[in-house]
């Protein structure tokens, strides 16, 4: 089943200047400072429930799984780090076959219309198409979070950055997650590097320029045992595997009145495969 929905792409500054977004909105006006323009497009999106096995991390850039989580509160960052991080790291290792998994960031999002998204505890679903790291930013993450155990022997394995996303509290019927099949993406033309400016730091991501060839999918009624792994980066850069998964929240038409508003958590991970030489020679390309 497919539907016509509105998704938000990005138009870079016409003068060629830096594309950036100041993440925290003005606490009074709710306005967000940004150098780019929104490009809202009507697109077809397909519900892939029942066809999930057609999409894998290395073919499409994402993969759906089912695995309930032991931690269920998602109300306290310290609890999340103490309880959800360890079980999630082990789960990602199991699902991917990775040697090491380092979790470095998480965001809990609760859709609350009218609440200004001006701080970490008030994050709303992101309704702009994006991927979570640029290539240089992924290498910065690698050198920061997985330094060599022996400086004389640098790491040579394959690594990825990825995002594990799942609903919390109840199924994500309101404001679900749309994901773009990497096989429909022209990475040289469609990706727009951008900087997110926080109060104390900056981070680089990709926004997306409109391409009518993009194939958008979602999985309907994902519940708290459902999860999706989405690549942000893969050190295999020769085009033989999917590099990333563009994604965004979106609004489905005709959501039943009274449907609980979306609540979700996304956790960002560095995933390393010891001894996998494919892509390993690229690790020296980027340094701290």
From TrEMBL:
Belongs to the asaB hydroxylase/desaturase family. InterPro entries: AsaB-like. GO terms for molecular function: oxidoreductase activity. It comes from Scleroderma citrinum Foug A. This is Methyltransferase.
């Amino acid at each position: 089943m497919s539907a016509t929905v509105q998704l938000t792409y990005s138009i870079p500054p016409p003068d060629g200047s830096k594309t950036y977004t100041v993440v925290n909105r003005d606490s009074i006006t709710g306005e967000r400072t940004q150098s780019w323009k929104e490009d809202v497009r009507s697109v077809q999106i397909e519900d892939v429930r029942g066809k999930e096995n057609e999409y894998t991390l290395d073919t499409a850039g994402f993969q759906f799984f089912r695995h309930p989580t032991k931690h269920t509160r998602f109300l306290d960052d310290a609890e999340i780090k103490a309880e959800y991080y360890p079980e999630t790291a082990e789960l990602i290792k199991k699902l991917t076959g990775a040697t090491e998994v380092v979790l470095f960031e998480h965001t809990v999002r609760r859709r609350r219309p009218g609440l200004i998204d001006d701080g970490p505890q008030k994050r709303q679903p992101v309704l702009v198409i994006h991927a979570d790291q640029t290539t240089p930013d992924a290498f910065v993450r690698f050198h920061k979070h997985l330094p060599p155990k022996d400086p004389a022997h640098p790491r040579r394995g394959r690594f990825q950055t990825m995002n594990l996303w799942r609903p919390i509290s109840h199924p994500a019927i309101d404001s679900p997650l749309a994901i773009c099949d990497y096989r429909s993406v022209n990475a040289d033309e469609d990706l727009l590097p951008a900087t997110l400016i926080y109060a104390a730091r900056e981070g680089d991501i990709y926004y997306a320029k409109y391409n009518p060839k993009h194939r958008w999918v979602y999985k309907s009624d994902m519940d708290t045992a459902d999860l999706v792994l989405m690549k942000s980066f893969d050190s295999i850069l020769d085009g033989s595997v999917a590099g990333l998964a563009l994604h965004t929240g979106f609004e489905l038409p005709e959501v039943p009145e009274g449907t609980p508003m979306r609540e979700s958590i996304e956790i960002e991970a560095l995933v390393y495969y010891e001894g996998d030489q494919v892509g390993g020679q690229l690790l020296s390309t980027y340094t701290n």
